[in-house]
Design goal:
7-stranded mixed beta sheet; 348 residues; 60s Ribosomal Protein L30, Chain: A; homodimer; alpha+beta; Phosphoribosyl-aminoimidazole Synthetase, Chain A, domain 2
Chain lengths: 348, 348
C-alpha cells in the first residue's frame, strides 16, 4: 500500500495536521491549493479564480449536489473521497446526463492529519479520472477542533443531456419493467460491520462505483428508459416508494428475484437491518419499456452477473396509488413502506 | 420581528430539534424536504429527483462552489443563509456571469432547533429572490451531536456568460485602474465584535450583499473590465496579491483613498486587525481600462457613495512581479503581502 506520508505534497514534518489557517485565505491556504489540490485535480496550469467558465454545447444541462459525511472516512471498497465522486456522478447519470464537471467543497476539522487529507484527495483524483469527470472549482473551510469530524465533502456536478427523453418519475407507465444492476446492501453493511467491529469469513466491500457509463450505454443502445434511480440512503425500498408516489403508479416486486449475498444477508440479520433499506453506492433501478427490458438486462449483465428483473409497474386503482408491494419468498404479499426513523446514520 | 416558531412549516411541538433521521432518507427527511425546502425555494410543483435538468442557451457557463461555516449563524446585517446565497452569486458575478441556478447542501448537527433551520431557510429564500437566482437542487445530511456546529451550508452556482470578454487575472494590463465599490471591513468586524462582546455607539452591520447586478450594469454599459474579485477571506490585501501574482503585474494602491468607517477603524485597533485583511461580503475590486474608469466609477457611486479609485497597475521589472505596494497616509511606501496565519477564523 502506498505510504501517503512520503508522497504528500505538503511537508508533513512541517505541517502534520490541518490548521485553522489552512482555511483562512492567506499563505497557508494558497499553499494547500497550489501544492495539493490543483496538481491532484489536473488544473495545475489554470489560474485559481472565483468561478470557472466552461464551454457547454447548446441544450440541456443537469445540475446536482450532495454532501458526504460518512463515518469512518475509509472502508473496504472505498473512502469518503471516491464516494463523493461516485455519488454526484451517479446523481447526474440518473437524469441520463453525461457527467462533465464537478466542484469540491471541503469542510476540514482543525487537527486533521495532513496525510489523511492527501489520501482522500488522491482517491478523488483517481475516481474522477475513472468516471471521466473534471474537478474544475473548489473551496476549503477549516472549522475548530470538535466542531466537525475530520472531513466533510460537498461535490456539485454539471452534466450535459444529449437526448430528448425525459428520464424522470413522470415518464413511468404501467407495464414498465424494473431492472436492478447488481446485488444489494454491500455499501451499508461494509460500513456498519466496520463500526460494530464485526468480522466475516470474507471482507464485505462497498459496491461504491460510478454508474454513468452503464447509463450512457443503455441510452446509446436505444433502450426506452423511463426512469433511473440510484439506491443510496434509504435503499431500494425508499427509491421505489419515491418513484411510485411521484409517478402516481403502483410497483410490484418479487423478493425471490432480489440478489443479496449470503454474507450480507447474514450481517443484516445480526445487525437487525432489512437489505431493502440498506444504502448502496453503485446500484440503480431502471424503469424501462417492456419490449426493451431484455436488451437492457443483457447490457447490465455484461457488467454484473447479478443484474436482474425485480418487478414491474402495474395499473392503479384509487386506493393503491404510490403503493409498493412485494411478493415474499413464502408467497405472501406485503407493503414496502418508507422507513420512519433512521436506519444507518452517516452512511454517505 | 417575525416569530419563526409560529411560521415554521414543521410542527415545532412535535419536532423541536433536528434528528439524525431528518438526514436518513426515510419519512422524516421527505417530510422536511416537502414541507420546508421545496415550498421555500419555490419548487413546490417540481418532483424531487437526483439531479435537475436545466435549459441553457448555447455558449459559456460559469460554475462555482463555496461552503459556509460562519460562527455565529446570525449577525448584524445577515446570517449564514443570506451569506451562502450572496457569496456564491458573487463568485459567479466575478467571472462576469449572470447567476441563474444554485444548489444547496445542508450539513446539520443533530439537535439543531428546527426554528433556527427555518429562519435560515427563509433568509436564503429572500436572498435568492433578491439576487434573482433559483435554488434548483439540494441535499441534507445530519451529523451526530458534537460532530458539527449547528448548520454548515454549501452552495454551488451556475451562471451564463453573455459576453466575449475574458474577465480574469490574465487580462489585467499595466495602466489598468483599480476601483473599489464601497467601504472596507464591516463584515469581519461585525462578526468579531459579536464574538468578543464588543459594543459600539452604532451597531456595525455586515456589508453582505449580492454584486451581480452591479457587474451586469458595468458590462452592459460597455466598460472594458479586465478582472473582478470579491474581497472575502483575506480581504483586499489577499485579493490584490492573488491577482498581481496570477497576472504577473505590479499593483500600487493609496491608503488615503481606501474608505474605512471610523467605527470599523476603531474596532480594528481594539482587536488588532488591519482593515486591508478583514473579510467583506459585498465588496469587489474591478480592474478596468484607464479610459473606462470614470464611467465605471459613476456607476459604482450611484449604488454606494464610498466607491472610489484606490490604485492602478504598473509596469513590472524582474524584481517586482506580483508585488502589491501601498502609499501610506504619511507618504511612505510599503509592501502589502499575503497574510501568513489566520486572522479571522470562520468568518464565512
Amino acid at each position: 500500500m502506498e505510504d501517503f506520508s512520503l508522497s504528500c505534497p505538503i511537508p508533513i514534518q512541517e505541517y502534520p495536521n490541518v490548521l485553522l489557517a489552512h482555511g483562512g485565505g492567506g499563505k497557508l491556504m494558497h499553499h494547500l491549493i497550489e501544492k495539493m489540490f490543483l496538481p491532484a485535480f489536473g488544473s495545475s496550469n489554470s489560474i485559481p479564480h472565483d468561478s470557472t467558465v466552461l464551454n457547454i454545447h447548446p441544450g440541456k444541462i443537469a445540475f446536482t449536489t450532495d454532501s458526504y459525511v460518512i463515518n469512518p472516512l475509509f472502508f473496504p471498497g472505498g473512502d469518503i473521497g471516491s464516494l463523493a465522486i461516485h455519488g454526484t456522478v451517479n446523481d447526474l447519470a440518473m437524469s441520463g446526463a453525461r457527467p462533465l464537471y464537478l466542484s469540491v467543497g471541503f469542510i476540514l476539522e482543525e487537527g486533521l492529519p495532513m496525510e489523511t487529507l492527501w489520501r482522500v484527495v488522491r482517491s478523488m483524483q483517481q475516481a474522477a479520472s475513472e468516471a471521466k469527470v473534471k474537478i474544475v472549482t473548489g473551496d476549503t473551510k477549516v472549522v475548530d477542533r470538535g466542531k466537525g469530524d475530520g472531513i466533510f465533502i460537498n461535490t456539485a456536478g454539471v452534466g450535459i443531456v444529449e437526448h430528448d427523453r425525459a428520464i424522470a418519475p413522470g415518464s413511468v407507465k404501467p407495464g414498465d419493467i424494473i431492472l436492478l444492476n447488481g446485488d444489494l446492501g454491500r455499501h451499508g453493511i461494509a460500513i456498519m460491520a466496520l463500526r460494530e467491529g464485526l468480522e466475516f469469513e470474507t471482507t464485505i466491500e462497498s459496491d461504491s462505483a460510478p454508474l454513468a457509463s452503464l447509463v450512457l450505454e443503455l441510452i446509446e443502445a436505444g433502450i426506452e428508459i423511463h426512469c433511473l434511480r440510484d439506491l443510496t440512503r434509504g435503499g431500494l425500498a425508499s427509491a421505489l416508494n419515491e418513484i411510485a408516489s411521484s409517478a402516481g403508479v403502483r410497483v410490484e416486486i418479487d423478493e425471490n428475484k432480489i440478489p443479496v449475498r449470503e454474507d450480507v444477508r447474514g450481517a443484516c440479520e445480526i445487525l437487525g437491518f432489512d437489505p431493502l433499506y440498506v444504502a448502496n453506492e453503485g446500484r440503480l433501478v431502471a424503469f424501462v419499456r417492456e419490449n426493451a427490458a431484455q436488451k437492457a438486462l443483457e447490457i447490465m449483465r455484461s457488467r454484473d452477473r447479478f443484474a436482474c428483473q425485480i418487478g414491474s409497474v402495474t395499473e392503479v386503482s384509487s386506493n393503491n396509488i404510490g403503493l409498493v408491494t412485494m411478493q415474499s419468498t413464502i408467497g405472501a404479499s406485503r407493503i414496502v413502506d418508507l422507513l420512519s426513523g433512521e436506519q444507518l446514520p452517516r452512511i454517505c
